[in-house]
Amino acid sequence: MSRRKNRQPPFNQGRRRFMQGVAAATGALALGGCDTRSQADALAEAAAALPKPEDSGIDFIVQVMMENRSFDHMLGWVPGSDGIQAGLKFKNVEGQMIDTFHLAADPAYGYQGCGWADPNHSYEAGRVHLNDGRMDGWLLTDDTAGNPADKFPVGYYLEKDVPFYAGAARHFTICDRYFHGILSQTFPNRMYIHAGTTDRTTNTLPWAQQAPSTLETIWDRLAAKGVSGRNYFHDLPTPGLWGDKYKGILAPFHQFLADAELGRLPAVSYIDPFFGASVGESPLGVSRDDHPQADIRDGQVLLAQIYDALRNGPNWDRTLMIVTYDEWGGFFDHVVPPVGPVSADEAKFNDGRLGFRTPCAILGPRARRGHVSNIQFDPNSVINLIAWRFGLDPLSVRANWSNNMALALDFANAPNADAPDFAVPQGPFGGPCDEALPVGMAPSGRPLHASYVEHRAGWNDYAQFCRRYGLI
Known about the structure:
Blueprint: H1 13-31, H2 39-48, E1 60-66, H3 71-75, E2 89-91, E3 97-99, E4 101-102, H4 123-130, E5 155-156, H5 163-171, E6 173-175, H6 186-195, H7 218-224, E7 229-233, E8 250-252, H8 253-262, E9 268-272, H9 296-311, E10 319-325, E11 361-363, E12 371-373, H10 379-390, H11 450-468
Parallel strand pairs: 1-9, 1-10, 4-5, 6-12, 7-8, 7-9
Antiparallel strand pairs: 2-3, 6-11, 10-11
Helix pairs in contact: 1-2, 6-10
């Protein structure tokens, strides 16, 4: 069902050039090394064919970063994508070959995975999972390896389990080559979407364990050009990793809903989901960010709420919504991530390996319809899109290495403002895992996995820090 009639700007030669450039890039990607031109040359041609930023029809960019899921695990079902779900086998700590399986159909796991370990997603664990490109170490890292019955990391969800993504896949664009910034955990990767780089490999806290970050960010670049930007958040704002430097751009999520409805959104909006920081995401599963043991259906509700606010607002026809994830969360994927450039400072602790593929969706009038983009993207691709649109200076050493996410958009046709209702069920879903344990699991009072204790303590400490400095 159409939300409003399209505005039809006249056809121009820029669109024709962009269409030809994208066709060349798509052909090179499909043919791989068999094409006479390199993929890089084809993508460069497509980039050169992009319209003038001010003529792009995009004036508002909304970036939402969820938590801890891989592409095959969450979106491997998407038609036309490079996804694999059923039929894979991975060795567990006892040498048994464990089949990949449908999580929602197994009552021991369902939509939350209550009672099972939070799959390991540390810097070190990522290299075990990678296993020199074999992509088979998912069941071999702590705490999963401590329980041979635990097969949570090799489970997957289907289209019927994720109605927001089902709608996005049918009506907009899914990217099946989005790799997160560093093969490590949450804080380093959330820093990547702000700074295009990181200064840590672990979830170290400002002042308590590490000085507040001094890395330049997209917020600095926006301010330098007088472009508006805001980081909306539920319970905790990621820019707190820079101390109180960005206090002035923070706003609660309810303000985002009001700003979207009233047409007052800034040019660039970042949205932090509900992390469940008061009690920690894991093991209770009360967050709405998709981090285990959250009920993934609650994450679908949140994404649909953001989409609905944008599509029903007065500026939808000039808006682009991008959904990414911070990292893979320890879940399986079959595509080896690339190695990218890092700064001299980052090279002291990071080998440059990007993270595994995570879900990525692009929605808006300029998104291609029912499309899967095979172009390689990463967090710097989002930053490059923002920099391209608003004339910002480059941000990090990956600025010229990462593809501009604008390459996935449709500039060959007039903007299509149709915005279907995805009819995402509203719940309520799930619940605290102490009240929703799988059949056969011990009641509350059982010993917690070490990962639970560490993760919960980290979020609690970060929440206390944010309160201390007036960020929340």
